[in-house]
Amino acid sequence: MGPQHREECKMTQEFVAESIGVSRQAVSKWETGASDPSTSNLLTLAKLFNTTAEELLREVQ
Prior knowledge:
- The protein is mostly helical and 61 residues long.
- Helix content is 66%, strand content 0%.
- The protein has five helices and no strands.
- α2 (13-20) crosses α3.
């Protein structure tokens, strides 16, 4: 899950982190591929970015 959706939505890592209740470092790790968001965080991210979880997962593959 790269930064594309976040950047298209003009959001900072800090804003995303605060919006879904995780650390900025967690968002950074998701974007670099060091770790993956939980299913519930993935669904929340999709809602925040006005996209689908499937679309976010597609970027990973």
